[in-house]
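Whiteboard transcription, Tuesday session. T.W. wrote the structure tokens on the left side:
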């Protein structure tokens, strides 16, 4: 059964998949998650609803995979500059300021939708949040292995909260979008000192 499902899922070409994801993100920005329908996606992409359901199972998985597709570069753990500061700065620099503003607006809107939709929450955690956290832990483990961060440093448990918090509070408190300049300064002033890691 799994082999059959995999075969079915592989019929869409990478180019077509990218087109579909772009259309989903466009619709998300236009109408939001709750008002987005599989009918609208099918119409926008000239697809059949049957194809969409066969490929993605439903709206939550389709939306989350579309969001994941816009993540820049390869996996987070592929970044290895030799220092934690270099790694974090490189990760921040993978998106330019315009893309960061667009994506932070989308993430903020999705955060509200996630809390009212258990299926979306499940897809969000399983397909986006947990895989990225696992990748980020590899970056942090390398910093521990290099001796930049103590293995028992209490701040290690809060690194994700610190990084996500920078994105979330930048708009709410400063009423400005996150930028590369803001985030690199935040890393040097807050994240690295909290971890006891070198800031230069």
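and on the right, the sequence the group agreed on:
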């Amino acid at each position: 059964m799994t082999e059959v499902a995999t075969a079915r899922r592989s019929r869409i070409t990478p180019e077509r998949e990218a087109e579909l994801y772009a259309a989903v993100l466009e619709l998300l920005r236009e109408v939001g998650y709750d008002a987005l329908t599989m009918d609208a996606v099918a119409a926008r992409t000239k697809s059949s609803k049957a194809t969409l359901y066969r490929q993605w199972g439903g709206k939550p998985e389709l939306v989350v995979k579309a969001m994941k597709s816009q993540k820049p570069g390869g996996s987070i753990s592929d970044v290895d500059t030799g220092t934690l500061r270099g790694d974090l700065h490189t990760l921040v620099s993978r998106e330019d300021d315009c893309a960061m503003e667009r994506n932070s607006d989308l993430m903020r809107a999705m955060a509200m939708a996630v809390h009212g939709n258990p299926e979306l929450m499940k897809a969000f955690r399983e397909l986006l949040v947990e895989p990225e956290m696992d990748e980020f832990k590899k970056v942090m483990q390398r910093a521990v292995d290099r001796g930049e961060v103590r293995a028992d440093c209490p701040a290690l448990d809060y690194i994700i909260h610190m990084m996500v918090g920078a994105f979330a509070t930048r708009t709410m408190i400063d009423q400005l979008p996150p930028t590369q300049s803001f985030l690199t300064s935040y890393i040097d002033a807050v994240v690295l000192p909290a971890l006891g890691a070198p800031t230069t």
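Someone added at the bottom: The radius of gyration is 19 Å.
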